[in-house]
Each structure stands twice: as C-alpha cells, then as structure tokens.
Amino acid sequence: MPDIEIRRDDIETRLETFRKRNHPDCILCGPNNGLGLEVEFSASKNGDVAALVECNELLQGYTGILHGGIIALLLDSAMTNCLFAAGIAAVTGEMSIRYLHSAGTDRPVLLTARITRKRPPLFLLRAEMHQGENIAARASGKFMLP
Question: Which of 16, 38, 43, 136 has a 20 to 30 Å separation from 109 between CA atoms?
C-alpha cells in the first residue's frame, strides 16, 4: 500500500472546518463571538498546533500578570484545536496544569499543543504556553468523545 502524504494545507483546512462547525461561538477561537479573543491556531504537517496570543490588562489577575484561569482557558483551547486538526471533536474530561513562571500582560504568549495518545473514545494531549524565553505553563489533558 503506498504512503499517502497528508499535506499541511489539508490539516489547516480540517482545523478551520472543525473549528467553525464545532466552536463557532467559543470565547477563545470562535469566529462568531463578538467578545472573543479570536485566537487563530495553525497546524504543522505532523498535526501539532500553535498560536500567538496578544495579551492585555483585560486578561490580568494580579496587576500586570495574566490570570491563571485565562492561562487554563488558553491551554485547553490549544489542545481542543489540536484535536480539530486531527479531525476529532472531543470534550475535556480532565486537565492538569503546572504554572512555572508568571506571564505578563504586556507581551504575547505562544501556545503549542500535540496529541500524545489516541485511544478512542479517549485522547491524551499536552500543551505549553511560552512567553519570551520561559515556559510559563504546561498542561496535560484527557479528552473524550461526547
């Protein structure tokens, strides 16, 4: 059987299709949410996703520091969009976060996520939030088919 190469364009198209169909009103990535952050994830050829997110004072907890709940939201969304890139619409069953460095509201953060294990109906993922040279937070999640 010949190898079938999945092009990055195909993965990007699948990511966009799943996001619009399954998350149109999402506070983070939904195109229809007027109050949303409008974060756009990109997918690599291997299915990992990444997004650069502009931060501002509306997202702070302590003065000048990104709120921990916002960090959780961002990491969860990164893992969800990673599943979308794989053609999977699953919901968060469990998420564990490790906060490593505070993230300032004055600079953007880079989100990354990847699938580490597929065992339908369960999927395991990892995500990271980077700001400058630091990994601000890491998360692992268990997602399940609804």
Answer: 16
